[in-house]
Specification:
The chain has a domain of about 200 residues. Helix content is about 50%, strand content about 0%. The protein has 12 helices and no strands. It is elongated, with a radius of gyration of 44 Å.
């Protein structure tokens, strides 16, 4: 083979190899994007909400008979209640309360309020000792001013809001039950203060007795407990050497007392010989603990207004800043609940 022929063969072989390699490395053309249809159907609507299930209708409250607290003696006089009016109302409605839980909460509310009144009294023992002396001789007190100011001087020991209002606010009484209870309270108060004699002194006395019953009961309960625990209380009130002699004489009268009421009176006399701070400490030591969750308003300070010349002054029992009833007038229907405003 000539050189010329060999060279021609090599050139032909190289050309064929290059062509093969060029086909292998050539890029693959990109695929075309999918064609979007011209019309897109809308998304299906959401399913309709489930039909509301009919709620059972609440049963209407039954119409219950009125609560009648008014009981009379053979002469037609209204008998006094053994407890403050609102407590008597709560006791009367208990049989109509269906829920045992609600009954228990009502009982606790009554006990908590008693504790709150005891604490108010224990902070104002001097006020209560003075008032107790006046209330014990109430029938002998005459005169618009002197009678009206008993209630006004006791304003710091009246606990507000009232018991029935507390029960309603705590949803222990429905509105209908609350109206029924308050009507019973009003009817008793009206009957107890509607006296045959058109005498302003008698009307005011009747109002005073109703208004002060709650704090006076608390005062006597505290005095009775102080009698039972006097040896313990005595060591907590910081008696001075000079006081010890006077207290020893009062303690003899306390030992010689022949009945519970006489011992309570003797304890009241004993406390009068102590300082105001010691008096408060003595009864605070035997008071029930103050409930933390009871909605009690701040106490109202006593403000006894002097009479204006030629006009009656002071404040009526059970009302704040309002005159007492005039002879023959309709008595106040809603003073404080056994210790109100």
């Amino acid at each position: 083979m000539s050189k010329r022929a060999l060279l021609t063969g090599l050139l032909l072989a190289g050309s064929t190899c290059s062509a093969s390699l060029g086909q292998i490395v050539s890029p693959v053309p990109a695929s075309a994007p999918p064609k979007v249809p011209d019309y897109q159907p809308p998304a299906p609507p959401p399913p309709p909400p489930a039909a509301a299930q009919p709620q059972p209708k609440a049963e209407p409250e039954p119409d219950l008979p009125p609560i009648d607290l008014v009981k009379r003696d053979a002469d037609g006089k209204v008998l006094p209640l053994p407890v403050p009016i609102a407590e008597a109302v709560i006791e009367a409605i208990m049989p109509d309360v269906k829920s045992e839980e609600t009954k228990e909460k009502l009982r606790k509310l009554v006990e908590d309020r008693r504790a709150a009144v005891e604490n108010a009294v224990a902070k104002n023992v001097k006020v209560m000792l003075d008032a107790r002396e006046k209330v014990n001789k109430l029938d002998s007190i005459t005169g618009y001013e002197e009678l009206s100011n008993i209630n006004t001087e006791m304003q710091p020991v009246f606990v507000n809001p009232q018991l029935l209002d507390m029960a309603t606010a705590a949803k222990l009484l429905t509105r209908k039950e609350s109206d029924r209870a308050k009507k019973a309270e009003t009817e008793y108060r009206r009957a107890a203060t509607r006296l045959p004699e058109a005498n302003v002194d008698a009307i005011i006395r009747a109002n005073v007795r109703l208004s002060v019953m709650e704090p006076m009961r608390a005062m006597d309960d505290l005095l009775g407990r102080a009698v039972e625990r006097w040896s313990e209380v005595r060591g907590q009130i910081g008696l001075t050497d000079g006081q010890n002699a006077a207290v020893s004489a009062a303690e003899k009268r306390l030992r010689d007392a022949s009945s519970p009421s006489a011992r309570i009176d003797a304890m009241a006399d004993l406390l009068k010989g102590l300082s105001e701070q010691q008096q408060n400490a003595a009864l605070a030591a035997v008071a029930k603990p103050m409930p933390a969750d009871l909605p009690v308003a701040p106490p109202t300070p006593a403000k006894v207004r002097p009479p204006r010349p030629g006009k009656p002054g002071g404040t009526a029992p059970g009302t704040k800043g309002q005159p007492a009833e005039k002879p023959g007038a309709k008595p106040a229907e809603k003073p404080a609940d056994g210790g109100g405003k």
